[in-house]
Amino acid sequence: MPFTLAPGVDHTVETEVKHSKFIASLRRIDDVDAAQQFLGIQKSLYPDARHHCSAYVLGYDANSRMERANDDGEPGGTAGVPMLQVLKARDLVDVIVVVTRYFGGIKLGAGGLVRAYSGAVSVAVDSARLVGRERRMLFTLAIRHGEAGRVEAELRARGVVVRGTDYGSKAVLTLASDDPTQLESTVASVTSGSGQLEPAGDMWVDV
User: Which of 51, 60, 160, 175 is the most exposed place for a label (fewest CB within 10 A)?
Assistant: First the structure.
């Protein structure tokens, strides 16, 4: 199962190696623009730092996943790639990590840099609040306005993921499920057999 950061929660952890300070910051992202924006924020927060190395993974499907890493002036392969490898090893997706380094006066060498950057990311990931992600099938359920509140409450109480409700001539609930047969049975029970599910694609949801 892939994992990502809990929504709306950035996470920052500071480590130190031979007087060099490493500030690892994680953010959940949806696209490349969001990744670049977060990198810019970190640079503005620590403008006097020597390096702002970064790595991110975008996309849950293997055939469309995007992975990027940047050493930002550190020797090639000693920062961005080790950082990316930690994200991949932990099955993290839709996440960027930026590690800002303040040089402490002692050179760490290539191996030392790899350990320091990957270690900083590992500490940050291990202490962050993560959520699992699963692909769920989507369905819509159209019901009378007067029934919407009760039906939604009962569905949620039975563990159904309700993604939202749109109001038009009827209230249309969007439901996510990994077991359509069970969902159909639950909806039939809650609506006394009057509710009809309509397929509406699929999406990844927090679980």
Answer: 60
